[in-house]
Amino acid sequence: MEKNYSLPEISEIAKEIIKHAKHKVLLFYGNMGVGKTTLIKEIVKELGVLDQVSSPTFSLVNEYHTQKNEKVFHFDFYRIEEEEEALDMGVEEYFYSNNWCLVEWPNKVENLLPLKSVTVSITANENQLRTVQLTNNE
């Protein structure tokens, strides 16, 4: 799946990502400021989370609960120096828990990522448009 979108269309893009994702571990790639966190917030909302969603830049992971009492985990690995930091927090248990795991800066923990995941690449275009590309990894 590849689509261009603007900010007013972000909830539709979030629905499309959920619909087309074959796995619950979503890996978000894109430059700083491209809108990864904004898109993740919308996906979390579409999954039925009513809590205020914020980036876990300093805590590494935020846990949310949907209205159906399912868990959604939002990771931000931007600030980690070594993959061992992610191992120490038990990241593999999260990834294999069958809960939604939305991961910003997955390249920082590349060797720990599950093979069955979904790559979500976001690029900025002109006129405030973004392109999102979704690839299911088997």
UniProtKB/TrEMBL annotation:
Predominant localisation class: cytoplasm
SUPFAM superfamilies: P-loop containing nucleoside triphosphate hydrolases (SSF52540)
Keyword entries, A-Z: ATP-binding, Cytoplasm, Magnesium, Metal-binding, Nucleotide-binding, tRNA processing
A Pfam family reported for this protein in Swiss-Prot or TrEMBL: TsaE
Membrane spanning residue stretches: none
Stored InterPro entries: P-loop_NTPase, T6A_TsaE
Subcellular location: Cytoplasm
NCBIfam families to which the protein is assigned, alphabetical: T6A_YjeE
Family: Belongs to the TsaE family.
Cross-referenced PANTHER family: TRNA THREONYLCARBAMOYLADENOSINE BIOSYNTHESIS PROTEIN TSAE
Name of the molecule in the record: tRNA threonylcarbamoyladenosine biosynthesis protein TsaE
Source species: Lutibacter holmesii
Lineage of the species this protein comes from: Bacteria, Pseudomonadati, Bacteroidota, Flavobacteriia, Flavobacteriales
Gene: tsaE
